[in-house]
Amino acid sequence: MNHTRFWGIEDVSITECDHRILAENLTATHDVPPFNRSPYDGFAIRSSDSKHASMNHPITLKVVETIGAGQVAEHEIESGMAVRIMTGAKIPDGADAVIMLELVKELIIDGETHIQIKRSVKKDENISFQGEDTQEGTVLVKAGTKITPGIVAILATFGYHTVSVYKRPVVGILSTGTELLDVNEDLQPGKIRNSNAYMCAAQVRAMGAEVRIYQHREDNFDSLYKSIKESLQETDVLITTGGVSVGDYDFLPEVYKKLGAEVLFNKVAMRPGSVTTVAVFEEKWLFGLSGNPSACFVGAELFVRPVILKGMNMLKPHCRVTKATLSRDFPKPNPFTRFVRATLSEEIDGNVVKPAGLDKSSSVSSLVEANCLIALPGGTRGWEKGSEVGVITWHGEGSEWPWDHPLFSKSSAIKTVEKQL
Amino acid sequence: MNHTRFWGIEDVSITECDHRILAENLTATHDVPPFNRSPYDGFAIRSSDSKHASMNHPITLKVVETIGAGQVAEHEIESGMAVRIMTGAKIPDGADAVIMLELVKELIIDGETHIQIKRSVKKDENISFQGEDTQEGTVLVKAGTKITPGIVAILATFGYHTVSVYKRPVVGILSTGTELLDVNEDLQPGKIRNSNAYMCAAQVRAMGAEVRIYQHREDNFDSLYKSIKESLQETDVLITTGGVSVGDYDFLPEVYKKLGAEVLFNKVAMRPGSVTTVAVFEEKWLFGLSGNPSACFVGAELFVRPVILKGMNMLKPHCRVTKATLSRDFPKPNPFTRFVRATLSEEIDGNVVKPAGLDKSSSVSSLVEANCLIALPGGTRGWEKGSEVGVITWHGEGSEWPWDHPLFSKSSAIKTVEKQL
């Protein structure tokens, strides 16, 4: 996280800022309400006129005009006068209270409208005062906040027709593997279609980045080196999938070395995804994720997400952590921290989590059901149905680091085991 | 919900289908794995060759070729032969087991590579069999499911470079109110900027619809009728904000009547948003939401959301319900079901909810903090800190109707009180 940098700032229109991250504080550019206004339909009066009003001694006021919301009274109200006023309209000068519509009786006297009031009204009664909700200059939303519909309402209210947000980093995705076919190719013996690039692209777009998918490459050092070097010219972050530990063909760390990139770590004590390599090179990021779909998925959420979001100044750039009750046994021991793809049901009576599919790391189908990862600390034996387990999700607000809850800490957790190549 | 209709179907590219709703079942177009493959780096052999191998009596096999992932062996393996094989590569014909790399010793005999094996290997050992994860023809994802990155992986794996999804309905938003200014106008006495249209647009986009914001209108029957009639020509759903109960200027129900629309309900026993009018007209929907920002927000989530999502065949088109512990007193009695804007913290040790801002229905600023609504059933008195309350959120998977949990049912709940105009 010490290597993160900001992705820059740009202005976008209020109609195109959904889910973007604010790069400026939003300030109230005027008081709310911007003027004293009526919270009800009624009549604006001088409260002193009603001082002696009662059931037996009603007082009568002349209605000099009617104003709707958005209209401004022409008359200054004097003693004996009332103005019919709608919800939200500005209190006329001279008036200091509003009496609700249903508390008066309307009368016509000499062809002119009057109202009869049978109770006294206090000064300031039924007036929403200028600034009582929000005062001009108040910081309403801080930079680093994701724009929600409620924040869009703030932008509109205060006249921000454009807003300053963090740029989306450009994330390149380059899959390697001689076995790969493109999505529109027919299946061939020994080959499989490249699913990692498209999956990872969807993950990264959901994190708020812009994606470029590059043509996948064979496991060949020279062509891979060339592709990576070229792709880095036009990306802030380059994710490769595969090529980190493919038997004899373990190119990625070598490519990073040849580039002159600083490898931050090259193996992680976790399953799946132990062969994850992360490096930085001239303010760009290189993520060498496994070609195994599960490991690739987990690597993107655990390692790529916080780098993208921290670069937008988000306070909680990591995946959200929660806990849930395990709905069935998970008998495997966990020599290393294990992330199990699972289905979290946030039921009204509590969270329940179920391991998805077969938990074979090659199983693409379990990715359909999975909406979270169960995080089982390394050094633990199997877990029984009914146990409380820590869960990591990529929905909703994130979390801060480290995950210091006991459910995650009974272990060395995600510990870098090998810093050097 | 009986009036909902489907919005139609269209094909989109795999790179542009994020968050769309599947209009077709996704089927495995081939087995997974598509061929028998090796889960490890090792040597493919005939298991019978190893039958008598032991520490004291190792057997030796000749390595006839090396295949990486994506390569296919040229040789059919015969007795005495082995093929070096990488993770994911196809098992050569003739071989019926794989022995892991670390369990053999490589030797050069007469200039040719051999391996020595010191244990017996069972038939089928270390083979991932064709179809063992998923068989061709299996329905993997059902229509009505929202496309996630995991589902994108499925699309890519099975060659869906385009996918059939439900169309986004076109939702028009038309604000009414003589007091309204546009977002780029300077403030004027008695007027406020139109925040509802932009807020509501962001809400509706988040539901997956396409939005058209129309120029806001004054509270004038004829111009409003004309605008609504014209807008309906090019929208599937038309939301108006304001004009439902603005003192003397209560136009919307009258406009709907003149159009010949069927008004489904015109008032709802809830706060805020009691003056919500919903009508249908020639397979189009009309939502007359309050001009009050809070009521408008609540109305869009409670009434517009399920219509949009049901039209995409989603199984759980309503807002998600959960429960949480109230973090402070809420002393107001609730003659009607009340929806209180609030901040839900999904902490690892449970959900905590705090009413946001002042809970004045005019308060725009509390919309910033709010990420949920506390639902307090009608007919209840105030609620104390520490109480368990029902919460409605618009994040994540939705819920089915009705919300029959006791936290929501202690009342007439959201009951239509007036069906006729």
Automatic annotation (TrEMBL), chains A, B:
Cofactor(s) essential for the protein: Mg(2+)
Enzyme class: transferase
Protein name in UniProt: Molybdopterin molybdenumtransferase
Domain MoaB/Mog residue range list: 172-310
Annotated source species: Fictibacillus norfolkensis
EC id: 2.10.1.1
Pathway assigned in UniProt: Cofactor biosynthesis; molybdopterin biosynthesis
Enzymatic reactions: adenylyl-molybdopterin + molybdate = Mo-molybdopterin + AMP + H(+)
Domain of life: Bacteria
PANTHER family: GEPHYRIN (PTHR10192:SF5), MOLYBDOPTERIN BIOSYNTHESIS PROTEIN (PTHR10192)
